[in-house]
Amino acid sequence: MTQTLHPLARPLGAAGLLPFLLLALALAAGFPQAGPALAAYGATILAFLGAVHWGLALAAPGPADPARLVLGVVPALLAWLALLLPLQPGLALLAAGILATAAVEQRGMRAGLLPQPYMRLRWWLSGGAGFCLLAGALLAG
Fold this sequence. Notes:
Elements: H1 9-28, H2 34-59, H3 66-84, H4 87-110, H5 116-140
């Protein structure tokens, strides 16, 4: 497994944090429509994080790892559930889902399934996204 990240990984990851930050700030500034937009973006990203593992499971030689297939689907289901909830608990569930997915990935890194540079970036991005989603949940209440 490669231990380096593509040079675009960090700037594109940072760009992916911008909607979280801008929507949380818009919610803080009194734009109530920013809350559902923040939830929609958070759900999209949580589903994307699961899709990473679905792709890794299918690309690996031999039979697909069932744990990776589960990790590929559960985040999307949590994201969908979060969108069905009222805004405040939905945003909190999205934050928890993003952070929990990173925690599970950390275990995968220790097992040699993910490279350490990916996890450093992943925690940085997940921390930013989780913070903005939790701030949005507090502001939505």
